[in-house]
Amino acid sequence: MITSQRIALVAGRELRAERRQPDGVVAAVTFIAVLVLLESLVVGPQIAREADVAAALFWLALAFATILATMRSFDRELEDDALEGLVALPGGRDALFGGKVLSLGIVLLLVAAVGGVLSLVLLDLQIALPVHLVVVVLLGVLALPPIVVVDVVLALRLRARAALVPILALPVLVPQLVAATRGTSAALQGDAVGALSWAGLLFAFAVVYTVIGLTIVPAAIE
Amino acid sequence: MTETTIPRGNTLPRIRPWLGIAAAASFVVASVMALFWAPTDAVQGNVYRILYVHVPLAWLAYFAFVVVFLASVGWLWTKNPLFDAIAVSSAEIGVLFTGLFLVAGSIWAKPTWGVWWTWEPRLVTTAIMFVMYVGYLLLRGLSTDFSRRATRAAVFGIIAVIDVPIVHLSVLWANSLHQLPTVLRAGGAPALDSSMLLTLMVSLGAYTLIYAYFMTARVSLERARQVRLWTT
Amino acid sequence: MDNLIFIVAAFAIVWGALLAYLISLRARGV
User: Fold this and answer.
1) In this prediction, does ipTM exceed 0.95?
2) What is the pLDDT of residues B169-219, one digit of tens each?
3) What is the SS3 assignment for A160?
4) Which of B128, B155, B158 faces A174 most closely, judged by CB atoms?
5) Among A9, A35, A134, B155, which is most buried by a count of CB atoms within 10 Å?
6) Whose CA is closest to A59, among A79, A80, A35?
7) How many Å from the N-terminal Cα to the C-terminal Cα in chain A?
8) Contact predicate B223/B4, CB 8 Å
9) Is the pLDDT of residue A65 over 80?
10) Probe site for chain C from B27, B53, B102 (most C CB atoms < 10 A)
């Protein structure tokens, strides 16, 4: 069985588990909804709907949502003790990494959609370039799971992992956050060239992060 | 899982006292040169002297980070505990140097530019690097099993170091879209004349020796700990 | 002298921290 088939298998299993017990998705979606609401209250609706501010808060919320969802995904493994079995198979670690990243990506797209729609409605956001916005969000979401998955794996059996994972992940994700917020802001304001440039960078970051993850994951998972 | 044998021994026991003396001596010379011998700058006055500490610390902070990377790769490849000892030692000293570099830089910035901090790409990248170092040490601090801890730390160390240039580029590109304050464009460090350059070189040498001395001491300490805590 | 306090502060902090680290190494048993 080749790796891509295994990755699809793992991803499928993840998504089915998520559907049965959607607490990971629910937590992430609720989290982003709360944050969008909080935005308006904390900085005032005038400032919250500025392109730069809305973009920044959206992506920070999504980064934390990624951490939530990933930790929940691995908590399930710990509860079921399923990790050893999967890892024992040849190519198992790559498949585990790939499958988790893929399923988390799909979950995050859902979360991003909800957060996006909420922002649109609650903040009365003006979107100049909707297609560009979708491209930026798609690529931005792609770049989030790889690093977070590695960090959750690293912190897996440690006590303070809820605090540790953000500390490990967020600095490493700075390039993604910078590109995603700038790209989103550009798409909201009508800067097509800007939006596409940042989208291109996001794609590059997604590739780099995934390659790093795939290379290092065999060493990280025991 | 294979047993990791932890050999005993002091690291470079004969060199270390000499290294210490050399470090101390060059440190004294460098400090005297920095504070008194080097000329006063025409533009920045005497405050620029802080740079004689700030610049070498920066250099060594990044160097220490690279050493963490190399030692991390070494551990993953060979599982030799010496590499783990080198990694944690360089990380600890690196955190120290990076923190001091940021503090000294901030103290220099205030009288020079009027602000304690600017969002200049190099500073931002270094601040992020500092947080990564701290994360690295936290990750180690929370682990209990020797081999797992070394592996976890090594993996994160590698990710962190590869990421630093990417962080720098992304912050650079983001900044180029904004107007940097005119204060920054006026320039950073003063133009160097030969005596200033000499002082800087001597300072660089002194801090490199200090790093080397701290490293031998810290690695030695770590090796002793490895023996004490992980052999029955 | 101009900005003396800044110069003194910077050098004192750096020297102090380096010394403190050295002492901590000794204390931990090197």
Assistant:
1) no
2) 888 888 776 544 433 434 456 667 888 889 999 999 999 999 999 999 999
3) coil
4) B128
5) B155
6) A35
7) 22
8) no
9) yes
10) B53
Tokens of A48: 């919250």
Say if B32 is an interface residue toward chain C (CB within 8 Å): no
Chain A touched by B163 (CB under 8 Å): yes
pLDDT digits (tens, 9 = 90+) for B140-165: 999 888 999 999 999 999 999 999 99
- CA–CA separation, B223 and B216 (whole Å): 11
Q: Which residues, in sequence order, are CB contacts of A76 under 8 Å at separation 6+?
A: A17, A21, A82
Place of tokens 């729609």: A117
Note whether B138 and A202 are within 8 A (CB).
no
- Burial code (b: 16+ CB inside 10 Å, e: under 16) for B52-73 equals bbbbbbbbbbbbbbebbbbbbb
Alpha-carbon gap, residue A207 to A210, rounded angstroms = 5
Grouping H, G, I as helix, E, B as strand and the rest as coil, residue B114 is: coil
Rg (CA), chain C: 13
The radius of gyration of chain A's CA atoms, rounded to the nearest angstrom, is 17
C-alpha dihedral sign at B20, B22, B23, B24: positive
Residue-range domain boundaries for chain A = 3-220
Q: Which residues of A touch B138 (CB under 8 A)?
A: 164, 167
Task: Give the separation between CA B160 and CA B145, rounded to whole angstroms.
Answer: 22
Rg (CA), chain B: 20
Domain range for C28 is 1-30
Which residue segments constitute the domains of chain B, with CATH numbers given?
15-180+201-230 (1.20.120)
Token pair 């919320």 in the structure block, residue: A61
pLDDT per position as a tens digit, B60-116 = 999 999 999 999 999 999 999 999 999 999 999 999 999 999 999 999 989 888 889
